[in-house]
Amino acid sequence: MLGRLNHVAIAVRDIAAASALYRGTLGAQVSEPDALEEHGVTVVFITLPNTKIELLEPLGVDSPIAKFLEKNPDGGIHHVCYEVDDILAARDRLVNSGARVLGSGEPKIGAHGKPVLFLHPKDFNGTLIELEQA
Ligand code: CO
Q1: Taken in order 43, 81, 119, 131, is the CA torsion positive or negative?
Q2: 69-121: per-residue pLDDT in tens?
Q3: Catalytic site positions
Q4: What pTM value is reported for the model?
Q5: How far apart are CA 13 and CA 58, in angstroms?
Q6: What's the gap in Å between 111 CA and the centre of ligand 1?
Q7: What is the per-residue pLDDT across 37-52, written as a single tens digit (0 to 9) for each?
Q8: H-type helices in the chain, by residue range?
């Protein structure tokens, strides 16, 4: 069911500073920030030869990463995103096996314009998993 690793997401307090760190110190290709109001985050993508890194900064008062940054004030790895060929089939298979899908259970359009779902970290070794339609 699982396809490629689409990205690893890192929550940060200051996306400009984190972008400068990746662009300058680490010499990576870094996108401009994109404010995704319906997701409560500003995102930057770092393109690597084999995958991407997503930097996430809280946007607005109800940001889903605000609590994470309270617990992890230096920032940290927030989720991993795997591609699936058929996100609805993947969801149904996971729900049937007892895994919990966050939110309404219906895919939302993610940062790449494709449908995404998030799976409960307690069902997956303490790791928040994002599934993205390939
Ligand atoms: Co993501």
Answers
A1: positive
A2: 999 999 999 999 999 999 999 999 999 999 999 999 999 998 889 999 999 99
A3: 130
A4: 0.93
A5: 7
A6: 7
A7: 888 999 999 999 999 9
A8: 15-20, 66-71, 87-96
Quick one: which of 48, 53, 67 has its CA closest to 19?
53
Which H/E stretch holds residue 80? strand 76-84
Residues 80 and 29: their CA atoms lie apart, in Å, by 20
Classify residue 51 by burial, with Cβ atoms within 10 Å: 0-12, 13-18, 19+. middle
Round to the nearest angstrom and report the end-to-end CA distance of the chain.
11
Contact 54, 67 (CB under 8 A): no
CA 119 / ligand 1 centre spacing (Å): 12
Q: How many CA atoms lie within 13 A of 78 on its CB side?
A: 28
